[in-house]
């Protein structure tokens, strides 16, 4: 084993910065206490090739954090004089140790899919989300019926459950809404292979908010954040005209085209139609007599 001298920088009682090397060393100390405990500071130093001062520093921090505790030796092990302090991992320390629960969960879901079919996985995903939905429903009811206010209440509830949720207004004019973002997903590893978890959550958001929401990005899909668009205001008058669309949001049905009057190819008044790309096409009215030399459609790119 190669010996790396300890850096002088240390973690203090108020959470001062700790170097990556020291953090890794402290993790090694915790893992060895877990595997070999009860273990003394001297034994830790010999096995990890650390100085006595370094071992004591790491043990002091781990004790203060509640990750390890001193072990009281049994009467049979007590000899003459004061016995050396020995340490074991506490219940909280075991929780801090890494566990491969994500892989285990995926294995269980694969087994469920193989033995009961993909529908069973989807049923489980909906059942899991239903528990959260039931808890959030009462809280969102207090926010009233406005989708924007209900979204803010949902963000607060999600953040309290560790989803690191935020919200910001997006869009302009005819189509406006709130972009709900989740910076953390507790089931990301499983959802990467089983998108039913994302679909169940999206459906629950629609029911909770009372509007049809649109999932734009997911952590499970490789994005840096889960993003959901929540429409909050679409004036009825805008449904017959082209509506500005929030970035990354598909235009709703009925807003893709609008018509107005304009000058047609023959130089007389005709009908102008604008599609979702912004392309305007002016055609003569059916009653207009066409000029053979100009008997074609006049297309203006990018006009409105």
Number of spatially distinct domains = 3
Strand order of the largest sheet: 4-5-7-6
- Large-scale geometry: elongated
SSE string, helices as H and strands as E: HEHHEEHHHHEEHHEEEEEE
**Unreliable residue runs:** 1-16, 235-269, 271-304
InterPro entries: ArsR-like_HTH, Carb_Metab_HTH_regulators, WH-like_DNA-bd_sf, WH_DNA-bd_sf
Protein name: Putative ArsR family transcriptional regulator
Would you kindly provide a written description of the structure presented here, covering whatever features stand out?
The longest helix is centred in the middle third of the chain and has 24 residues, at 118-141. The protein has a four-stranded antiparallel β-sheet with strand order 4-5-7-6, with helices on one face. It is elongated, with a radius of gyration of 32 Å. α5 crosses α6 (118-141) and α6 (118-141) crosses α7 (147-160). It has three domains: 20-96, Arc Repressor Mutant, subunit A; 101-240, no CATH class; 258-300, no CATH class. Mean pLDDT is 74; it is low at 1-16, 235-269 and 271-304. Helix content is 39%, strand content 19%. The chain is α+β, with helices and mostly antiparallel strands. It has helices spanning 20-36, 41-48, 52-65, 91-96, 101-116, 118-141, 147-160, 188-193, 196-209; strands at residues 39-40, 68-71, 86-89, 165-172, 175-182, 214-217, 226-233, 258-263, 269-274, 280-284, 298-300. The protein contains nine helices and eleven strands. The N and C termini lie far apart (72 Å). Residues 8-24, 292-304 have a biased composition (Basic and acidic residues). It holds the Pfam family HTH_20. Residues 268-279 have a biased composition (Low complexity). Residues 280-290 have a biased composition (Polar residues).
